[in-house]
Design goal:
Length: 91
């Protein structure tokens, strides 16, 4: 019985250590940093695609509208990422 209890105790201790490692505040910050960085990269790539997709409008009256829209979106992405980093105290 003693061996069985030791094995069970060891299993729960190992599980407890893994849980503490995964759910620590430092791990949460690392996950948040990865999430923010990847979100920012995806948004930037989408905006680059949008810029390429609207190149046809360079010599039309729609060009300023598309440029303004892209500029506002880029500012929003930068501001959102910066705010999220401040919230998670990554800066």
């Amino acid at each position: 019985m003693d061996d069985k209890e030791n094995a069970t105790s060891g299993l729960f201790e190992g599980l407890s250590e893994a849980t503490n490692t995964l759910f620590s505040s430092e791990s949460a910050r690392k996950i948040a940093a990865l999430w923010i960085d990847n979100g920012e990269k995806v948004a930037t790539q989408a905006l680059e695609f949008q810029t390429k997709a609207t190149e046809w409008s360079k010599n039309t009256m729609f060009a300023p509208i598309f440029e303004m829209q892209n500029s506002i979106a880029r500012n929003y992405v930068e501001l959102s990422a910066k705010t999220a980093r401040r919230f998670w105290q990554l800066e």
